[in-house]
UniProtKB/TrEMBL annotation, chains A, B:
<feature type="domain" description="Thioesterase">
    <location>
        <begin position="121"/>
        <end position="191"/>
    </location>
</feature>
<dbReference type="Pfam" id="PF03061">
    <property type="entry name" value="4HBT"/>
</dbReference>
<dbReference type="InterPro" id="IPR006683">
    <property type="entry name" value="Thioestr_dom"/>
</dbReference>
<dbReference type="InterPro" id="IPR052061">
    <property type="entry name" value="PTE-AB_protein"/>
</dbReference>
<dbReference type="InterPro" id="IPR029069">
    <property type="entry name" value="HotDog_dom_sf"/>
</dbReference>
<protein>
    <submittedName>
        <fullName>PaaI family thioesterase</fullName>
    </submittedName>
</protein>
Length: 216, 216
């Protein structure tokens, strides 16, 4: 059984923390982009590296022993802030902010820059898979139950350009502890990638609702 | 047709650049980890944020207009340094360093920390998909031809813990311009995730060998 930690913050404090860490993480995300694209000379690069190492050392003076985990507030709000696809504190995540309609469908707008490249100028196929795996899983579990991915199949119809994209998913059907979810990624011209997945409620999570909480 | 740029550096200069940018990117990767795990107070966080923004501004005084792209040296070595799975200059990538046996098989050891979390303490299913998509594609193309992912199917046998993992792939068979590749992720106890994919040589790349170059 996985551990979903309780985080004792009210909604106002949660909003304050979101602003604080969201802004900080955006700054680090911007640095990740600049790290790929910079063409400054070696001396400048070495000087900046020293500054970054000093900044990291300051952050590490007080830190968690391990990964962030998944925390849930008393009002049931999710703080999956380390999550690789949607984590508010994860500068490696785009991050994807998912909108749910409460009837089994969801969508997100994402802007993918230099850090998500595979073929020249295009989204890495594996990044498409990461975003689809996440939105399909979250769509299957949202407000309902705790799913883990069983299988996922991804079909690439054509190349996906870097830039603004729409990611979406909807529940196809349930079969007892399995949920079948379908989804896609689209650019301005239409669908580029399709996915279908089977998500499974593990034994320890059955009958307990959605342990992830109700929101990112 | 995609643009694979020529980068006019010899092997010695390539090694020097690898050291320079590899070290810089490792520092940024360490900051991404600390950004998730830090528990310093708000004043410290705000001060560090200012330093990071200043560092980014210095890097951006001279930079590429867009993503890094894929460059190849005169001796055929690949510089896919912005790549989301293996990019030497991409702090969002683990990065995965792939070893090829030259006979259609490959493997990589990866150490996944806090930035790759999905369920508490576990690797995000979509990160597993990203790594598998990449190694399967590269295994299908290495020394042979230029593939893009057609379809990929991923089966999660059990949860994958964060930490040290082995990722591997091998070519199953070719059918004209399609290559069928299989692979897996393992922890110390054995296989946790299996994948099979079909990779397709696009029309513009047929008969031209592997435009990606021979090494990362």
């Amino acid at each position: 059984m996985l551990h979903f930690a309780q985080e004792d913050v009210d909604d106002a404090e949660l909003e304050r923390l979101r602003g604080l860490y969201g802004s900080f993480t955006d700054a680090v995300r911007d640095l990740v982009d600049a790290t790929i694209r910079t063409e400054v000379d070696e001396d400048t690069l070495r000087a900046v590296q020293g500054e970054i190492e000093a900044a990291t050392a300051r952050l590490r003076t007080k830190q968690l022993d391990g990964p962030y985990g998944v925390r849930v507030t008393p009002t049931g709000k999710s703080m999956a802030w380390g999550n690789a696809a949607v984590g508010l504190r994860n500068a490696a995540a785009p991050p994807m902010v998912i909108n749910h309609d409460g009837k089994g469908s969801s969508w997100a707008q994402v802007d993918l820059g230099a850090a998500y490249e595979g073929p020249p100028g295009l989204v890495h196929g594996g990044v498409a898979a990461l975003l689809l795996d996440h939105i399909l899983g979250e769509t299957g579990s949202f407000g309902r139950r705790t799913n883990l991915t069983g299988t996922i199949e991804i079909k690439f119809l054509r190349a996906t350009p870097l830039g603004r994209l729409r990611v979406e998913a909807r529940i196809d059907r349930d079969e007892q502890y399995k949920t079948f979810v379908v989804g896609s990624i689209s650019d301005a011209e239409g669908v580029t990638v399709e996915a279908r997945g089977v998500f499974i409620v593990p034994k320890w999570a059955r009958g307990k609702g959605n342990l992830w909480g109700s929101e990112q």
